[in-house]
Every structure is written in structure tokens, then in C-alpha cells.
Design a protein that fits this description.
Elements lengths: L1 E3 L5 E3 L3 H12 L5 H13 L1 H18 L8 H14 L4
Antiparallel strand pairs: 1-2
Helix pairs in contact: 1-3, 2-3
């Protein structure tokens, strides 16, 4: 999935689908240097993913301004139980 880069290092190439999966980590600056460079390389040549990133940033900004809603304890407990039930066991 990679191609040879400078000094013989392997540079990963992200597909559009893979970029969608890591966009939050990219915006949170949580990718390693190699993956960050691969995302930026993909963004440089893919206008659709550039628009997707812009839309994602706009959504995050819009939602960040919203007041936090508090869930009642019973609702929170039901949601947490549902999330735990869906998590695959290791």
C-alpha cells in the first residue's frame, strides 16, 4: 500500500475511505508524523477530501458552541450498557 519515498523510507498513501476514518485524529494532532504527512499528501491532490475536511471542521466549530446537555442517570446507564454490549470482547 505504500510507495518508496525519500531515503528509501516507505510512505503510506491514504485512500479517501481511510482518510475519513482518521480525520478526527488528524484534527486532534494525534497522528504520527508519517501518517500526518500521508493525510496531507492526499489532501493536496483530492479536492473532495479537502471539502470533507472543511465540512468536518465547520461541524466541530458549530457543535463546540452548543451548551452541554446533561443526561439523567438512568438514560446514561442505559446508553453505557448498550455501548458495552456492542463492544467486541477481546
Amino acid at each position: 500500500m505504500g510507495t518508496e519515498g525519500k531515503a528509501g523510507s516507505v510512505v503510506k498513501r491514504f485512500t479517501c475511505g481511510e482518510l475519513v476514518e482518521v480525520v478526527t485524529a488528524y484534527l486532534d494532532d494525534a497522528l504520527d508524523e508519517q501518517d500526518r504527512a500521508a493525510v496531507e499528501g492526499h489532501l493536496a491532490c483530492c479536492a473532495d477530501c479537502g471539502r470533507y475536511l472543511d465540512q468536518h471542521r465547520a461541524t466541530v466549530r458549530a457543535l463546540a458552541d452548543q451548551p452541554r446537555e446533561q443526561l439523567s442517570r438512568p438514560v446514561r446507564d442505559r446508553l453505557m450498557a448498550a455501548f458495552k454490549a456492542r463492544r467486541p470482547s477481546s
